[in-house]
Specification:
globular, 390 residues, Metallo-beta-lactamase, Chain A, alpha/beta, binds zinc ion
């Protein structure tokens, strides 16, 4: 059954002090200014760095990021999602606020059938500079939906980390013979499901595996944050497995802390239309991860008009993906149109930035070079590329 969970509308956004431009087509590699292709706009302008972090150097060990900042890392796993969120840390354990939680949304693909190995790429990134060393606690793991480019790499995370809570939309995915994937460890989803069901952390406690998100399910990622599950479905809607995706919106509790993030998984137009109807301008969010890797199926103009994103992150690799390339040119046109209409100066960030075009890159090499890192205290946002994991 469908389910929609209450959502606190946000009042508005602060202006971020950046002059930004929309990059339509990238042909370059990450650098201070990126020459874009034959589009009518020429350059990406990076956001201003947070004081004391020289983001423009493309080298910032996590130790240099002030611990009180929220970090959102869109890890370059090729075409697939893997997002690491690290909540701010006030250094006081157990006060329920700024607890330094680790959250993983999706794990990228599983390295088969011409896809990059998402866990290899993600774990290499997380291991660098001790960002999240092997054996750390993952407080929440979220599978947006049971496609292999999201579920595939989560198995590695469960093997190598202590996972306390696991959320899964609970769709009983089947193969072409109508056999349930969750019983088949040779499927990407089955391997994840079996590992999630058996995950033990700490002194032998079973992980809390939530298979199917109950109505009014609440997430507590610290008192400074609001986490709203805007959508999740156990059943396929509009003929798309993508539409079972858990859709999350992350924002700050305190008045005046208006930076926010929207993580729609691979949800498509059908879900976007429902959210528009339910929430309207309450969808307004600073940083939008484009649904379904920038596919034509998602990120409609109507959705963009409500979300009004200042930044859009596209998680893609330069690989043929189910017969199409992502992102789709139509999506860039929509972003450009809405950015112009509403004077948003939307910036686009892509995990395929350094992938060579137009030639397809060797499998695996499309991942790992263009992670996108956003850091924020709730009031000011800094966002930039982390090139080659450093
Ligand atoms: Zn996907």
């Amino acid at each position: 059954m469908l389910k929609r969970i209450s959502f606190k509308a946000v009042s508005g956004l602060i202006a971020i002090g950046v002059i930004s431009f929309l990059c339509l087509i990238n042909e370059g590699i990450a650098s201070e200014n990126i020459e874009c292709g034959a589009g009518n706009v020429s350059k990406i302008k990076y956001a201003d760095p947070v004081e004391d972090i020289d983001l423009h150097q493309n080298a910032f060990p996590i130790a240099k990021i002030p611990e009180e900042l929220l970090q959102v890392h869109f890890i370059d796993v090729g075409t697939g999602d893997s997002i690491w969120i690290h909540t701010g840390d006030d250094g006081i354990d157990g006060n329920g606020r700024m607890e330094g939680y680790n959250i993983i949304i999706d794990g990228g693909s599983w390295g088969l059938f011409g896809r990059a190995n998402g866990y290899d790429a993600a774990s290499e990134y997380l291991g660098k500079s001790d960002r999240m060393p092997i054996g750390s606690t993952i407080d929440w793991m979220i599978l947006s939906h049971p496609h292999s480019d999201h579920a595939g790499g989560l198995y590695g995370f469960i093997q190598d980390y202590d996972v306390r809570n696991i959320l899964d939309p609970g769709h009983d995915k089947t193969n072409d013979e109508e056999e349930s994937d969750r019983l088949r460890t040779w499927s990407a989803y089955g391997r994840f499901f079996q590992a999630a069901s058996a995950e033990v952390f700490g002194e032998g406690q079973m992980a809390n595996f939530v298979w199917g998100i109950p109505d009014n399910f609440m997430l507590d990622w610290g008192a400074e944050l609001d986490v709203d599950i805007l959508w999740s479905s156990r059943e396929i809607v509009d003929n798309g497995l993508n539409n079972v995706s858990i859709v999350l919106r992350l924002s700050f509790t305190d008045a005046g802390n208006d930076i926010s993030f929207l993580f729609p998984g691979d949800a498509e137009r059908h879900v976007e239309d429902i959210l528009i109807k339910e929430l309207g301008s309450g969808l307004r969010t600073t940083v939008l991860k484009a649904g379904n890797h920038g596919s034509n199926s998602s990120t409609t103009e109507a959705f963009l008009q409500q979300v009004r994103p200042q930044h859009i992150v596209i998680t893609a690799g330069n690989q043929n993906f189910s017969g199409t390339m992502r992102p789709s040119p139509e999506v860039f046109t929509r972003i450009q149109n809405v950015s112009n209409q509403l004077n948003l100066n939307t910036q686009v960030w892509r995990t395929d930035l350094g992938d060579k075009t137009p030639t397809l890159v060797p499998v695996g090499s499309e991942s790992g070079d263009d992670t996108i890192l956003a850091t924020t205290d709730g009031k000011t946002l800094s966002i930039n590329y982390v090139v080659n994991g450093r």
